[in-house]
Each structure stands twice: as structure tokens, then as C-alpha cells.
Design a protein that fits this description.
The chain is mainly α and about 950 residues long. It has 37 helices and six strands. The strands form three sheets. The protein has a two-stranded antiparallel ribbon. Helix 33 packs across helix 34. The two termini are about 45 Å apart.
Length: about 950
């Protein structure tokens, strides 16, 4: 079920483009049921998770590499999936009323949103670190697309690129850290790594792994100094900000730190890095939020600050691992409890506030605090939502933010007792910083509410007269702030069902056997230091807020001092200038120079490897003597190759080149390799046709006299490449330290894959991955060729005074009556033979690839004899769609093994009694081969018909 949970958003995203045929419906109504249904499903899992019955499902993917799609639902992942799906449902509902159904790119918006939702679910449910990394980077890609949704705005493109560069940079570091963990433990499974975590700290790669993983977490969760991407990401539509930047994407780093705490906690480096980075981010973000004039900018820096708060609490909570198995551990786990509870509260109040800001922007046309004011009476419901959300963010009663803020203060006060690291009184900096940051939090919360809704209405500065938002826009934020009240008065709704299981996931095994996690959250604990700290926050905050207007903070222009944003922009400019200079140094515009670079490197690198590798033998004594037939074929092949550079016309050069290929075909025939001979013959035939089609656009071949210093490097490179390739081939045959794998293929071909044709079995089963990626590359190449050709100017357009007729080349067609008469029968014979090759290929010479080339050759013959129009009339199909259909069949067939809990591209075969046919062997590999067949036919014909210049065909 968990695999289906992750797959559903992607399946729905693939369906969304088809909704263009439902113009009356807002696409959001089709999307909304999915996150709502997933949220309800995960709610039903709470009792079992609470009872300790975690859910795990696994599909074998690449077992040889230790990569399996193992999904694990425990208390921590349950908390996050409820946030992802619950907030997802509310955000989709909000977006239905925020974005018009006629908005440009509305379908792309929901495709990207569903991609992001599926990727986030994959991150928090994956037990395998490599799978987690894949989903992690997919969140970066999908968030890039969402932030750049209004791609015509320069700031949107800038913010999207900035967020992706920083988060992907951190993700690559995290990827390296994951691989270091694998080297130390021999597994990518998080659960298995946790089980052996006690043996890791003494290893040399442990600290580098920790630092690299924290780099990924800090960049994703916008921790100082990597926070700079988040304010610029506010260029995204408000529903994106409410979803990604309050509850999901920015919490991915928080999740990673919490998930890996059992591995790294107990190390002083982890404690200090996580807690101090969080505290610096907390105070910095809170201070910067006060200085923002844009409401979204204020919320962006407040989000940075709140993420720092949660991160610091996770760092302080790791102190419990220093007392694993002792009663003192419970004392310090209170910080983790506060982090988890504030994680929920932050999603509630920050999501509602982002939606409120969207409503204000929607109804007033601005988010500028200098233009706003006096909206309280005009937008009373919106004001009420903003008031509850802001007060909860400020940590004021009677809202849930007050409870988590008190727990935050408690954790900061408790850490003063932590003296195992011999820090003395330095631990006192934590509660002082926490109190000061809370003062700033109080101030920016008051600014958000009262500078927007209080004071006088400034009609002259607004684009339109504001009014209360429609009910649809208010539903989601009202439901969210209602939770801020419900969680405040009934905290046990989440403390026992969500926080306790999550605590058990993070600090599993860290408590004494007689202790358990019992989370108790209450409003009143007496006149405690935390209460007095809160009173001090309110008093100092009110004083600072009263001075806010007098200081005229918003009217101050940004100083010219260097900032982290300047450093980021300057670094990019430096990289661009450096890369431009380097590129200009070798990109001369000469293809000859480029080939010289490539082939020179080829020769030097490979010859150096051959010379430097001990034990290289060319094994000439083991080769059989050449027969007279082989000698004759090789002689003709060499003569044809030698004649190519001396050919006087392009047609002659093509024919000589084709002759070389056909001689290779004869060699395959002599060596009794019918599959290779058929393949080589078909490829050579199609290649010759393609060369002829391409070269007819070029001018006549002219011999130019060049100086010796021009020709000599060409000769040296040509000889060098030939000698190097020959030596590598000989060394591969004579120096391989491994037993030939061909024996394994010959022995196991039928037993494992049900096929007697070893070549075809290798293509569709043993090396099916290679074949799948090869047809993908061919498909992409054919589409690129089609696109490039169709960039040609339309008839009548001019360039530099030249008029293009639109028929720049004669259509491919022969006037030979004999050819036309004979081809009618030959085409039918070739097509019949191609079908035989396809169906017989699993046990006899043939297969989908050879059959496809044979089919393409028949169609090419038809085109040569009768013209492109005849091919179009006989087979009125779009070959680009044929290519896509072939790729789809191949991928679906390869993925079908997942249904039977088998690795990707696993095939099955068996014998069945069929009517008329009797005992018949059927293999799923034939379906995969069908995909290869269609893809290759589509690719070949798409290229030939595109180059053939038949515009009507390709329109």
C-alpha cells in the first residue's frame, strides 16, 4: 500500500494534461480528492503506529547495489505524511479559488504540485538512503518548477534558480555522506545503519559523513548561511509558499536530522553544529523579519527563524544520547518533544498566515506594508485569522504556539544542566538567545497584524478598493487557525497519538528499560521561569513595537554593505566569466579543432592506461589463421576504407563507406553470427539512405589544397586513433583477468530467460537496462532531429534578402519503372520476413531490434520507389507517437515485475496449451521486445521522413 501511496500523485500528474478536454471544471477539483484520501488513510494508521506496529513494504530494485525501494511507516514518518497530505489538501482547496481555471499554465501547476507531493512522501517514507536521495532531488526539481511558475517574471526565474542551485549543492554533499555511511556499514538501509550505529564513531569517515549530511539538511531547511534562497522563493504563487515553505519542503532537512539522530547523536560535533546553527538561524531570521516591508518577505524570514528554532531543539535533544539508558535521558528529550510539537504548530499558523497574505494581495493588489492599513473593518474574517495565526506564532495564550514556546523555553533552561562537555557557564547563552529571539518574534508578529489591519486605510496607495475575500479563499486558513485553538485546549489529541510515537522513532533505545515516552502538555505549570520569560518577552516586545514606527525601519533604504546575497551573486558572475573565458579559449568554431581535442585525449588517455597497466598481453598466438575468404573480405574492406578520402564526389564516398559496412556483414556471416550479420546489414542500408538524404543538401565536393602542416596533424590523429583502437581490442581479447561471461549466458539463457537465442536474450533480459536506455536515447535523438529540421524558415520568410521556397530539396523518389514494379513484391516479402524475425527472435536468429530495422528498410524502399506521399497514404501514422508507444510498452513491461515483488525488468516465461497451436512457450520478454520494435521503427522513419523534406508528413 505504501508504494501505491507514493505512486498515486505521479499517476494523477500524468493524467492532468488530459483534463484540457474538461474545460468546465477547475483542475483543482480533480486533484483535491487525492491528498484528502491519503490524509484519511494515514489517520487510520495512527492506532497501529501508536501500538508500536510499524508498517514496512519492500520491492527489490537493484539488489546487487543494495538499492531496494523499501518504505517504512513509523511514528516520525507518520507525523510528516500527515503534514504533507493534510496541508496538501488544504492548499489545493485554497488554490482552486486563488487561481482561475483559465489561468495560463494551470495544468502544469497541478502537475508540478503533485510531483512535489509524491517526492515528499518518498523522502519521509524511504528507508533506503539512495531512494531517499532520489526523491530528495526530485523535490528540488519540482520546487524549481513551482517557484518559476510565473516564468515571464525575471525575479521568479532568479528565485527558482537560486533555490535549486543551493539545495542541489547541499543534496550532492548529502549524497556523498550517504555513500560514506554505506562504505562504513555495507548497507543503505537506515534501520540497519541505526542497528550498528554504536560501532561507527571510531571510524575515519564518520565525521566527514556527518558534515556532508548536515550540509544537505541545512541547505534544504534554509539554515544560516544557506537561508538566502528562501526569501527569493517567495516569488512563487501563494499556494506554493503556503505548502512548500511552511509545512513540507523546508521541513525535509528537519526530518533528515531527526531521522539520523540515532546514528550521530551522542557526538559533540553533532550537538554543537545542529544546536548552534539553529540558534544563529533563529536570531538572525527574527531580526531580519522586522526590517521587511513585503508581507511575504516578513513571513519568509520568520520561517527561517522558526526553522532555526526547531533545528536547535533537535540539537539540544541529542544531548539525551550522552545518557543513553539512564534516567537523565528523559530530561533532555523534552527538547525533541518541543521540536515535534512546534513542527505541527508552525505548519498550522504559518500556513494560515501565508494564505492570509495571499488574500490581502488578491483583494488589495499589494503586499507592501507601507501601503497597507485600516483593513480590520473591511476584512474582519481575514483579520481574525491573521490575529490567531500571528498570536500563535508570537507564543501568546490561548493558542497552541504558546504551549510549544513554553516547552522551547524549558528545553533552553534545561540545557544549562548539561555539563558533560565541560562547557561551564557557556550553556547560559542558549536561554538568553532564545529569549531575545522571542522578543523579535513578538515584534514581527505584531507588525504583521496591526500594520496591515490597524491604522487608517490608504486608498490612494491601493490599486483597488479592498473587501472581504470569498468563502472559498477563507475555508483553508480558517480550518488551519481552528487547529491552533484546538491543539491549545486539547493537546493530548496530538501528544499521545503523534508525538509519542515520533519520539520513540527518534530516541529508540535511548531510555532506560523502565522508562517510556509519556508526553504531557498542559497550559499551566505554575509560576515557572518560563512564564516569567514570556512576560518579559511581551513587555520588551511591546516596548520595541511602540518604538518601531518612530524608528521608521521600513523607510530605511538597504545599505550598500556586502551581504550573503551579494556573495552568491558575485560567485555566480565570477563562475560565468571564468567559464566564458575558458570556453572561448577552446571553442573556436572549427569542427576540426574539436575533433583534434577529442581524439588527442582519446589517444593519450587510453595509450597511457595501456602502457601503465601491468600484465597487458595482446594474445596474438591464440588467434586462428585467416582463411582465404576472410583475407579477401578484409582486403576489400581495407581498399574501400582507403578509397573514402580520395573519392571525388559525396556519393562515391558514401558508397565506399557502405562497402566497408557490408564487408563487416560478410565477416559476421563467415563467423556464423546471423543476428549480428542481419543487424549490420540493415543498419548499413538505412545509414546509406540517411547519408544520401543528408548529403544532397550540401554543395558539390570540392578538393582544396592544404599545406602539409594542416594535413600532418590529421594524419597523425587518424593513425593514432586506429592504432589505439586496434591495441585496445587486442588487449581486451588477450589480457582479460576474468572468465568470459559468454559461458554464463550460453548456459543460463534458456533456464533463466526461456530463450535459446542468446543474443536476443541478452538484449531483452540480461542487459535489458542497456536496451531500454538505448531506445530512450534514440527516441530523444530522433525528436531532436525532427525539431532542428522544423526550425527551418516557413515558405515566404526571408533572411538576409533570400526568399525560401519551402521546397529546398527534391523529394526522395525514383522514376525507375523496374524498381517500382519489383519493389511491390519485395516490400511485402521484407515486411513478412521482419515479422518472422520479431516473433522467432527469442529462440532463433532475429528479435525486435532486427525486425524493426527490416521493417524500416522495407518502408525506405517504398519511399525510394514511390515517394514519401505513398508511404504516408499506405501507413497514415505519426511515427513520433509510434516511438512514444514503444518506449511506454517497454517501460510498463519492465515495471510490471514490481506487481510480483520482483526486481525491475524481471521477465517470466512458461508453456501453455493454446487452441490450434498446442504446446506454446510464452515469455513476457516478447512484450518488451515489442516496445523495442515499435521504438526503433518510429525512430528510423521519423528521422528519414524528416530529412526527406516531406513537410506535410511531419506537420
Amino acid at each position: 500500500m505504501l508504494h501505491l501511496v507514493i505512486l498515486l500523485p505521479f499517476l494523477l500528474a500524468a493524467f492532468i494534461p488530459l483534463t484540457k478536454y474538461l474545460p468546465r471544471f477547475h483542475v483543482g477539483w480533480i486533484v483535491l480528492p487525492l491528498p484528502a484520501a491519503l490524509f484519511l488513510y494515514f489517520l487510520t494508521r495512527i492506532p497501529s503506529i501508536q501500538a508500536g506496529s510499524n508498517l514496512m513494504t519492500s520491492f527489490s530494485w537493484m539488489p546487487s547495489l543494495g538499492v531496494d525501494i523499501t518504505l517504512y511507516l513509523d511514528g516520525l514518518s507518520l507525523l510528516f505524511v500527515l503534514l504533507i497530505t493534510g496541508m496538501g489538501a488544504l492548499v489545493v482547496l485554497y488554490s482552486i479559488y486563488y487561481l482561475s481555471k483559465h489561468s495560463e499554465g494551470i495544468r502544469q501547476f497541478y502537475v508540478y504540485l503533485l510531483m512535489f507531493m509524491g517526492a515528499m512522501l518518498g523522502v519521509v517514507l524511504s528507508d533506503n538512503l539512495m531512494v531517499l536521495y532520489g526523491f530528495w532531488e526530485l523535490t528540488s526539481i519540482s520546487s524549481f518548477l513551482l517557484i518559476a511558475f510565473w516564468h515571464r517574471r525575471e525575479r521568479s526565474r532568479y528565485g527558482a534558480m537560486k533555490s535549486m542551485l543551493i539545495t542541489v549543492f547541499g543534496g550532492l554533499g548529502m549524497f556523498a555522506g550517504f555513500n560514506l555511511l554505506y562504505v562504513m556499514t555495507g548497507t543503505y538501509s537506515i534501520r540497519e545503519i541505526v542497528a550498528v550505529a554504536g560501532s561507527l564513531p571510531g571510524q575515519s569517515m564518520f565525521i566527514p559523513a556527518m558534515l556532508l549530511i548536515l550540509l544537505g539538511a541545512f541547505t534544504k531547511s534554509a539554515q544560516f548561511p544557506f537561508h538566502i534562497w528562501l526569501p527569493d522563493a517567495m516569488e512563487a504563487p501563494t499556494p506554493v509558499s503556503a505548502y512548500l515553505h511552511s509545512a513540507t519542503m523546508v521541513k525535509a532537512g528537519i526530518y533528515l536530522v531527526a531521522r539520523l539522530t540515532p546514528i550521530f547523536a551522542g557526538q559533540s560535533g553533532w550537538f554543537w553544529l545542529v544546536s548552534l546553527t539553529g540558534m544563529v538561524t533563529l536570531i538572525y531570521g527574527a531580526f531580519k523579519a522586522i526590517k521587511q516591508s513585503d508581507l511575504k518577505g516578513l513571513l519568509a524570514y520568520s520561517t527561517i527563524s522558526q526553522l532555526g528554532l526547531i533545528m536547535s531543539l533537535l540539537g539540544l535533544g541529542s544531548a539525551a544520547s550522552f545518557f543513553a539508558g539512564k534516567e537523565e535521558a528523559v530530561f533532555y528529550t523534552m527538547a525533541t518533544t518541543a521540536a515535534l510539537f512546534h513542527l505541527l504548530n508552525h505548519a498550522v499558523f504559518k500556513g494560515s498566515l501565508f494564505m492570509v497574505v495571499g488574500i490581502i494581495d488578491h483583494e488589495t493588489g499589494t503586499r507592501d506594508l507601507r501601503k497597507l492599513g485600516g483593513l480590520m473593518s473591511l476584512m474582519p474574517i481575514t483579520f481574525s485569522v491573521a490575529l490567531i495565526g500571528a498570536f500563535s506564532m508570537a507564543g501568546l495564550p490561548p493558542f497552541s504556539g504558546f504551549l510549544s514556546k513554553e516547552m522551547f523555553f524549558t528545553a533552553m533552561l534545561n540545557i544549562r544542566e548539561f555539563d558533560i562537555l565541560n562547557t561551564g557557564s557557556w550553556m547560559g547563552i542558549f536561554p538568553v538567545t532564545a529569549w531575545l529571539a522571542s522578543v523579535f518574534t513578538f515584534v514581527y508578529s505584531m507588525i504583521l497584524v496591526f500594520k496591515t489591519f490597524g491604522g487608517k486605510l490608504q486608498k490612494a496607495k491601493l490599486d483597488k478598493m479592498p473587501h472581504e475575500a470569498p468563502l472559498g479563499l477563507l475555508l483553508s486558513p480558517v480550518m488551519l487557525v481552528s487547529l491552533a485553538v484546538v491543539f491549545a485546549f486539547f493537546p493530548e489529541l496530538v501528544s499521545n497519538s503523534l508525538i509519542e510515537p515520533a519520539m520513540a522513532s527518534i530516541h529508540n533505545g535511548g531510555l532506560a528499560p523502565e522508562n517510556t515516552f509519556e508526553v504531557s502538555i498542559h497550559f499551566w505549570h505554575g509560576w515557572t521561569p518560563e512564564i516569567f520569560m514570556t512576560i518579559g518577552v511581551i513587555a520588551a516586545g511591546m516596548l520595541l513595537y511602540r518604538s518601531y514606527s518612530r524608528l521608521r525601519v521600513l523607510d530605511r533604504k538597504p545599505s550598500g554593505r556586502k551581504t550573503l546575497n551579494h556573495l552568491y551573486d558575485g560567485s555566480l558572475q565570477l563562475l560565468e566569466r571564468g567559464s566564458k573565458r575558458l570556453t572561448n579559449a577552446y571553442m573556436t568554431g572549427s569542427n576540426r579543432h574539436y575533433l583534434l581535442y577529442i581524439f588527442s585525449f582519446f589517444i593519450i588517455a587510453l595509450l597511457a592506461a595501456l602502457i601503465g597497466q601491468p600484465g597487458i598481453s595482446f594474445g596474438m598466438e591464440h588467434y586462428a589463421p585467416l582463411s582465404i575468404y576472410e583475407t579477401a573480405v578484409i582486403a576489400v574492406m581495407l581498399l574501400a576504407a582507403f578509397a573514402v578520402p580520395f573519392a571525388k564526389s559525396r556519393v562515391s564516398a558514401i558508397l565506399f563507406t557502405g562497402c566497408v559496412g557490408y564487408m563487416v556483414t560478410l565477416l559476421f556471416v563467415i563467423f556464423r553470427a546471423p543476428d549480428l550479420a542481419l543487424t549490420q546489414m540493415m543498419i548499413e542500408t538505412v545509414s546509406v539512405i540517411l547519408f544520401l538524404l543528408c548529403f544532397r543538401y550540401l554543395p558539390k565536393l570540392k578538393k582544396e589544397k592544404e599545406r602539409l602542416r594542416f594535413k600532418l596533424p590529421n594524419l597523425i590523429i587518424a593513425l593514432g586513433v586506429g592504432i589505439t583502437t586496434t591495441l585496445i581490442a587486442l588487449a581486451a581479447m588477450g589480457s582479460s583477468p576474468f572468465e568470459p561471461i559468454s559461458e554464463y549466458f550460453l548456459k543460463e539463457s534458456y533456464h533463466l530467460a526461456g530463450g535459446k537465442n542468446v543474443v536476443n536474450v541478452i538484449l531483452v533480459d540480461f542487459r535489458g537496462f542497456d536496451t531500454l536506455f538505448e531506445i530512450m536515447v534514440l527516441g530523444i535523438a530522433s525528436m531532436a532531429i525532427y525539431g532542428l529540421i522544423h526550425l527551418r524558415m516557413e515558405p515566404g520568410q526571408t533572411e538576409a534578402g533570400k526568399v525560401h521556397s519551402g521546397n529546398s530539396a527534391l523529394r526522395l523518389r525514383s522514376n525507375d519503372v523496374i524498381l517500382q514494379t519489383m519493389s511491390k513484391g519485395i516490400v511485402l516479402i521484407i515486411l513478412t520476413f521482419s515479422l518472422y524475425l520479431f516473433f522467432a527472435g527469442h529462440n532463433h536468429p532475429g528479435g525486435g531490434f532486427i525486425g524493426a530495422l527490416m521493417t524500416s528498410a522495407a518502408l525506405v524502399l517504398m519511399a525510394v520507389a514511390f515517394g514519401m506521399d505513398t508511404v504516408r497514404k499506405v501507413l497514415p501514422v505519426n511515427y513520433r507517437l509510434i516511438t512514444g508507444a514503444g518506449l511506454l510498452i517497454a517501460i510498463v513491461t519492465a515495471s510490471g515485475s514490481f506487481i510480483f515483488n520482483a526486481p525491475f525488468l524481471s521477465h517470466a516465461f512458461g508453456h501453455f496449451q493454446l487452441p490450434i497451436l498446442g504446446d506454446t512457450e510464452l515469455a513476457t520478454a516478447v512484450l518488451f521486445d515489442l516496445g523495442v520494435y515499435l521504438a526503433v521503427v518510429g525512430v528510423t522513419m521519423n528521422i528519414i521522413l524528416s530529412i526527406g523534406g516531406d513537410k506535410q508528413w511531419n506537420s
